[in-house]
Amino acid sequence: MGITSVIKDSLLNKKQSILIPTSYEEQRILNSKRCTQEGVRAGTKAAVIAGIATAVPTLIAVRKVPWAKASLNYTAQALIISGASIAAYFITADKTILECARKNSREQYDNLKK
Question: Which of 36, 38, 56, 61 lies 20 to 30 Å from 46, alpha-carbon distance?
Answer without folding.
Answer: 61
